[in-house]
Amino acid sequence: MTNAAYQRIVVAVDGSATSDLALGEAIRVASGGGATVLALFVVDSGVMLFDAGYYDVGQMEKAYVDSGKKTLEDAAARLSAAGVAYETRLVTEPAVVGDIAASLNEAAREWNGDLLVIGTHGRRGVRRIVLGSVAEAVIRESTMPVLLVRGKAAEK
């Protein structure tokens, strides 16, 4: 038995600098406490809903899946190097098509996670309205504690 507050930590990864920071925080929380980390990548199927005839949806989906596999390999390498027990999961069948937050929450719940770690860009105003916020939706829908890791401010 360990004295760690969290034993099953889910971290959302997408290959961005912000998700790299979230992975680092998940490693920090898990280190020394015997926790297991699930690195989770959700393929964004929402962009594939609209076939304008200008691209091959099958090739686009393959590119997203390949990107997810590479991102999970990189996460596994970091987790292994840190000596943290881990699993990886690529979600290609979303809980709700086009809703990454719902898919993240469902996968975390299915895995019996007790903490979900996700990066956020911290957008405000019109940029948040236009681009949306996966992190905000995760918080609204989550049934477990969520740790938000703020991305570094963009240089001007």
UniProtKB/TrEMBL annotation:
Pfam families: Usp. Residues 6-150 form the UspA domain. Gene3D superfamilies: HUPs. CDD domains: USP-like (cd00293). Belongs to the universal stress protein A family. This is Nucleotide-binding universal stress UspA family protein. It comes from Cupriavidus plantarum.
